[in-house]
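User: Run a structure prediction on this.
Assistant: Running it now.
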Amino acid sequence: MKKKEKTNVMRVLDSKKIKYTEHYYGDTDAVSGVEVITALGQDPNQAFKTLVTTGKTGQHYVFMVPVAEELDLKKAAKAVQEKSIEMLKAKELLGLTGYIHGGCSPIGMKKLFPTTIDETALQYETILFSGGKIGFQVELSLDDLKKVIPVDTADLCK
């Protein structure tokens, strides 16, 4: 484990006095969400990736789905009352959110976007997601995440 480093996500959680567990995986070759969670010895169903999308109206949305699953764009569109949804292009991610691909977290984006997490998150006491930087994951309860950003739940996976 490398020296204690605080990401923006951790600073936001600290400022709101939200209890979380940080997980560091930077000393592995893990790239995909499943590889990361496996390297950490955690349940892939309890770990969520953060996906940024654009609706037909031009509005941006954030969706969180288990790392081993795929976002169903039709279900996602329905969840946010859009006609259709498409994934944000990777080259647009940094400018829009302040995060790079692989280190995108729902906490601490440049703007607050409507965020929906797959309903399977309700099954777990805690969930894991990006700590806002490649190499870092944070773990906290869904209720605590909702104290930081507004989050809806819906069936989002294929």
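The chain has five helices and eight strands.
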